[in-house]
Amino acid sequence: MAEVSVDGDVLLGEPPAFDPQEAAVLAQRLFGLHGSTSGVGSERDQGFVIRGTDGPVGVLKISNASEDPAVVDMETAAALHVLTVDPSLPVAAPLPVLGSDPASGRGAYVTTVEGPGGLAHLVRACTYMPGTASIDPPEIGAEAAFDYGVVVARLGRAMRSFFHPSAGRVLLWDVHHAAEMRPLLDAIGDAEQRALLAGVLDRFETSVLPRWPSLRAQVIHGDVTVDNALVDERGKITGIVDFGDMSHTALVCDLSSSIESLLVHRAFEDVVPIAMRVVDGYRSVTALEPEELDVLPDLIAARAVADAVLFGWRAALHPDNAYLQGWAEVLPLLGYLEDEGKALLRERLLPGSVTSDDAALTERRTHAFGPALSPLTYDRPLHLVRGEGVWLIDADGERFLDCYNNVPVVGHAHPRVTDAIARQSRRLNTNMRYLTDAPVQLAERLVASMPDGSGLDTVLFVNSGSEANDTAWRLATAWTGGDGALVTRFAYHGVTDAIAAISPEEWLATGQPAHVETFEPVDRYRDAGLDMPAELVAAVARLQERGIEPAATFVDGGFTSDGIPVPPANAVRALADRTHEAGALYIADEVQVGHARSGLHLWSFAAQDVAADIVTLGKPMGNGHPVAALITRRELTERFAEQTEWFSTFGGNPVACAAALAVLDVIEDDELVARAGRVGPALRAALGDVQRGHDAIGDVRGIGMLTGVELVRDPATKEPDPELTDNVANGMRARGVLVGTTGRAGNVLKVRPPLAFGDEHIVLVAEALDATLQGLGR
């Protein structure tokens, strides 16, 4: 038999050998527990239930003679600590020794007795907890498995403020030390079984152990298992009676030991579902980190190895101990976990985390979504797996400066927003037919952000900018009685049937609908003298010539899809005036340029001093979480309510509103309006320096953190060069900077980074543009 140095004294020590009569005498003399005794199974100690005339009155535990008194002190201290922090947990309470004062310290709960052979044993007692011990795992169903997870998480929470010097011991049941079990494999006589166990240890050492320092750690119970917890007739935990396997280790080990114990003897098709129920119960109390979820399947397998090896080795040493003889029952489960169970469980724990081959994934995408979906961006598509501030990271770990997305307005994966989403989703997510705080608070914040005297005092929540504009269109037609729309020449306002019809960028082969007219925005590069308000008036006249009265003018304050031409503010203001003179409503579409991007105000229409009737919000409102809104005057919604009852199932749900509130907080706390107003012009100045070296750059323009770089074939004729523009976008992507393209001719680079973009990033954009144009000979 191989020698064991780790925790060897306890594992090698002979278990106590007190008979029930001796135990009854000890229980009465030391703890005042009167009654008969019956033994309970134990690996290395002895336990006895004391039953009086009216039922059980307590439990006596006699420790192995090799047990460290400091460890016993830790177990007592832990139970007392847990009951102080969370008194409703079903933990057996330590009982003081007769004649001792509990106020004197933990020593009042432990004493020493002499056993057979003259060996000294530590003795304790605790309250009796009702329930059944050592239940067969398949008897514990899905509901009880969920409850197991809840109890384990609550116990971990109660112990997170607990520490004891003895917790630093090296305990073989702690799978952190799984490698120390290798000498014990010799006790497993079957070569195939030994190979299975050794293979699991090999993979554990290779894939898990190097990541161990990154896992959350604390003192954990380590053994809330079917052999160590009492349950009721439904399989739910009624008692935790033993803290004998405590140690300071990874928190997730508490979960893995419980899951493993619940999976033994279970049909393989039930293994993953039951494991997930335990996990779901656990994270209903305590969120699990991605790294913990990723290693959990391997920890479960390693715990199964510990069961097999430690019990198998101990069974060889103590063949008369029935508790140890079923050691091989875990091997079928372990084999299944290694064959496919771990992979299936990991897919459930981390859905969407599989990283496929780029080419294969592209082919699957084409097959799954068909030709109607917008194509992938760039000639060499990005296979992204993570976002961080202004950076996007692909499957190979390469980082790209994101200067394209306005959706993550405060930065990819902003911790305040992601935390708000997770926190609220753990508490409640429902609809606005119930009374919840977040939607009301968000609506009040949005109304307060509207310009003084605007009359914009009423909010409707939806899920996307398209839905916001669709609802705005319905309000406008209900209020005016008209059904004509006015939009800029190449505008984009959404994808619903009604809104795609007023989005010229979407028309392609469908042509211009009869109820829509377009007008040219002022282009300071090509036609700075254009009378944009007059263009709108002419468009109204064309509608009326067809017998159509206008209902609304939709304007994106950044004129983003039109190529970011940056009309003067007075011309934009005049659009609203001419709209009102025509009897229509002015709808300020802030989906692309709102939420501080203009650099002058939270909303571009407010910065332009435009008298809007309806304001629509979308994309950046939840920093990537679907949430959108429109703000209008109450009288418009009153008219609308006369025609219909309006409701959106997901609009205004508490999780979406929590995300939106967090975004507003970050914009305010980080002063992102001012940041956009400072960094955006600095970026354009740097790009202007690049322009002087390349005649392909016809113009650099923008507002706030929204910049357009127009590329031309000939600076004299200003002929658009969409082919070059596409090549430049791809070339900058190859140099780690992501930009988009826009404009009717597709010849404007759209530089629209998250507002976390700072001065340190400007040079990266300028250098990438300069190098790309040089590389293309332009």
The helical percent reads: 25-40%
State the end-to-end distance.
Answer: 78 Å
Instruction: Give the strand line-up of the largest sheet.
Output: 13-19-18-17-16-14-15
Please tally the β strands and state the result: 25
Spans of at least 5 consecutive residues whose pLDDT stays below 50 are 1-8
- Taking all Cα atoms into account, the compactness measure Rg is 35 Å
In terms of structural class, how would the helical and strand content be classed? Answer: alpha+beta
Q: What is the typical, i.e. mean, pLDDT?
A: 93
Largest sheet: 7 strands, mixed
Overall geometry: elongated
Discrete helix count: 22
Indicate the proportion of strand residues. Answer: 15-25%
Task: Provide structural commentary.
It is built from 22 helices and 25 strands.
